[in-house]
C-alpha cells in the first residue's frame, strides 16, 4: 500500500482589502498555458511558463503573474495616489510554427461586411453621435485624469522564442514573414530557444494619466524588443545558434535586468509593515552556455558538410 500525495494550486487567487484610508489588491495567476489546436502541429504548446531552477522550485512556488496594489484614499482629492503598484511576470516561452501562424492570419483576415452588418454599424455611429457633448467630455476628462504613483514597477520580461518553418504549409508563408526572411538573406530556417531579455519598467513619484502610462510602458518594452532583433538573427539554426555563445559571456551583467524568479513582490500586509525585498542582479553561468553553443555550431556545420 502506497500513499498518494495530491498537490493542488488554484489557477487564480485574489485578495481585496479596504478601509477608510487605503484600498489593497493582491492577485495571482499561478499558471497560464496556450495549446495549439492544429492537427500534426510541430509545437503542441504555444505559450507556457518556464520552470524555475530546482533550487527555487523546491523552496517556493512562484505564480506566473503577481500583482500588488496599495492605494491611498483621500475624499478631498480627485487624484488617485498609489503608494505601491507592482506587477511581476515570470519567465515564459513562445513556440511558433508556420501552420499556427497561418491559422492566426486566416482568423484575422478582413472579410466583406454584409448589408445587415453595415446597417448595424451605421446605427451604432448614429447613437454615438446623438450623445450629449457633455457626457463625451466627462469620459475624456476621466481618461485624462492623472494618478500619482509613489512606486510603480513592472518586472523585466525574459522570453524564450522558438520558431520553425517546417511543415506542410511551407508554401503558404505569409508575405510579411517572407519579406523579413528575404531581408536577412535566409529562405528556410528555424530559431531554437533564443532568449530575449527586456529590462524592467519603473517610475517613482510621478503624475501620469492612463494613456501616458500605457504609452510609456509600451515604448519601453517595444524599443528594447527592436534593439534585440539581432538576437533572433544570431539565433537562426543555419548558424547553429551562436547567440548561445554570445549570451553565455554576457548573461547576468545586463543593466536594469534581474531574473524574474528572483523578483520579490510585497503583499499589502508586508508593505504596511515596511518590509523591503528584492534583488536586481545575478552572475550568469558562462561555462555551460558556451559549451552548449559550441556543440550546436559544430553540429550545424556537420549537417552542412553532409
Structure description:
The chain is an alpha+beta fold and 306 residues long. It has one domain. It is 36% helix and 26% strand. The protein contains 10 helices and 11 strands. The strands form 2 sheets. A 6-stranded mixed beta sheet has the order 1-2-5-6-8-11, with helices on one face. Strands 3-4-7-9-10 form a 5-stranded mixed beta sheet. The longest helix has 20 residues. The radius of gyration is 24 Å and the shape is globular. The C terminus is likely disordered. Belongs to the VPS13 family. It comes from Schizaphis graminum. One of its GO terms (biological process) is protein targeting to vacuole. This is Vacuolar protein sorting-associated protein 13C.
How is the secondary structure organized here?
Layout: E1 12-18, E2 22-29, E3 34-35, E4 45-49, H1 54-59, E5 65-72, E6 81-89, E7 92-97, H2 98-107, H3 115-129, H4 133-144, E8 146-154, E9 157-164, H5 175-183, E10 190-198, E11 201-209, H6 210-227, H7 229-234, H8 243-250, H9 268-273, H10 286-305
Parallel strand pairs: 6-8, 7-9
Antiparallel strand pairs: 1-2, 2-5, 3-4, 4-7, 5-6, 8-11, 9-10
Mean pLDDT score: 73
- Uncertain residue segments: 244-255, 273-306
Gyration radius (Cα, Å) is 24 Å
Major sheet characteristics: 6 strands, mixed
Strand content: 25-35%
Class per helix and strand makeup: alpha+beta
Strand arrangement, largest sheet?
Answer: 1-2-5-6-8-11
Number of distinct helices: 10
Secondary structure tally: strands: 11
Sum up the overall morphology in one term.
globular
**Number of individual domains:** 1
Distance between the termini: 55 Å
Order of helices and strands: EEEEHEEEHHHEEHEEHHHHH
User: Share of helix among residues?
Assistant: 25-40%
